[in-house]
Specification:
The structure is a single chain. With about 350 residues, the protein is α/β, with parallel strands linked by helices. The chain folds into three domains: about 140 residues, Rossmann fold (3-Layer(aba) Sandwich); about 60 residues, Orthogonal Bundle (Helicase, Ruva Protein, domain 3), CATH 1.10.8; about 130 residues, Zinc Finger, Delta Prime, domain 3 (Up-down Bundle), CATH 1.20.272. The protein has 17 helices and five strands. Helix 5 links the parallel strand 3 and strand 4. The radius of gyration is 24 Å and the shape is elongated. The relative contact order is 0.09.
Length: about 350
């Protein structure tokens, strides 16, 4: 079973179908960890994990020790499980990598190996998984299943939010569940943390939008979009209020400029797309937006209707200038930002 979808993987695990090897990776780290645990629990059940579970970390990974573990027999159980977290093949020499691949290809039926990636870059900063890591993935695909966990759309993660809220003794409407997913950019781990905080505050009541606006930690990207919207519409008071919050959170000015420039780029793309009657989906495809950013593109299309393209272009030019000044001019960075905001708002 080569690359599989999350749905097919879920069905296979529920049916009790276990394979010899699994490889889980992707941006949704929470899902990666969750499914690694699901396979582990299905493989070992109530068996003693002292002897039937072996864990390896990618750093200082020992291929010989790994081979010894996978070839051992389970103790008073049907399966033996080996977990390998954050193994980066780019850090392995050729002999060790070849030995690892050979070991995977010859896994005994009584062993289940789970490779799961939660904190390293398999891509080496590029678009595709590196060639060395592909070798491990290819070997696993011949013996088991490979699944990449991408961020889900807000509507997809909303059901999980509703169910989780109920299990925490609270409730949340579908509309507000989607809103929470958007606030957290569909990061399941972040959603889970924020939902636990909200449910504790709600204390049995329904989780409202007001609670979310008050309690959910604002992400830089979310703040940047609100900031871009305020500046695009000439609301300098709101822009300075958002800047106050960002500085209170000790956000680096260079990061603020980067995120703000990205948000203005979203608005500019949306404005030009509206003029050429290009759809939101076409914009997402053309510029490689991930699915968890679909709501950002949708909001940009709505807001772009009320602003002139000349103003957006001018704001982008100002941000480009300030980015250079922050990195080179010996002037307080906050002062540079406030001056730029005043210019953008005045230009409206």
């Amino acid at each position: 079973m080569p690359a599989v979808s999350e749905n097919d993987l879920t069905k296979a695990i529920k049916s009790g179908e276990l394979l010899s090897a699994y490889y889980f990776y992707g941006k949704d780290v929470f899902a990666v960890e969750t499914f690694a645990k699901k396979v582990l629990d299905k493989a070992l059940g109530k068996a003693d994990r002292t002897y039937n579970l072996h864990k390896f970390e990618g750093k200082n990974f020992n291929t010989s020790a790994f081979a010894d573990c996978v070839e051992a027999l389970p103790v008073f159980a049907e399966k033996l499980c080996v977990l390998v977290n954050d193994l980066n093949a780019d850090e392995m020499n050729k002999d060790d990598l070849d030995y690892l691949v050979k070991t995977i290809e010859n896994l005994p039926e009584s062993t289940v190996v789970i490779f799961y990636i939660t904190g390293i870059d398999l891509f080496g900063g590029k678009k595709y998984v590196s060639e060395k890591n592909k070798k491990i993935i290819s070997a696993v695909s011949k013996k088991g299943a490979v699944c990449e966990f991408s961020y889900k759309k807000p509507q997809e993660i909303a059901k999980m939010i509703e169910d989780k809220a109920k299990s925490l003794g609270s409730m949340i409407s579908k509309e507000n569940a989607v809103y929470l997913a958007e606030l957290c950019f569909c990061d399941a781990a972040l959603v889970n943390n924020e939902l636990e905080k909200l449910a504790a505050y709600a204390d049995g009541r329904e989780i409202s939008r007001e609670m979310m606006d008050m309690l959910v930690s604002k992400q830089l990207e979310s703040s940047a979009f609100s900031l871009a919207k305020a500046l695009a519409f000439g609301n300098v008071r709101q822009a300075f209020a958002i800047l106050d919050v960002l500085f209170a959170q000790k956000t680096e000015p260079a990061l603020i400029i980067g995120a703000l420039s990205s948000s203005f780029a979203d608005l500019y793309r949306a404005k030009t797309a509206l003029g050429e009657r290009v759809s939101q989906q076409e914009v997402m495809d053309d510029f490689g937006y991930p699915q968890n950013r679909s709501f950002g593109v949708r909001n940009a299309f709505e807001d772009a209707k009320r602003v002139q393209i000349a103003h957006l272009r001018r704001c982008l030019e100002i941000l480009s200038r300030v980015d250079r000044e922050i990195k080179s001019v010996q002037i307080p960075q906050r002062l540079l930002l406030e001056k730029a905001f005043a210019e953008m708002a005045a230009g409206r």
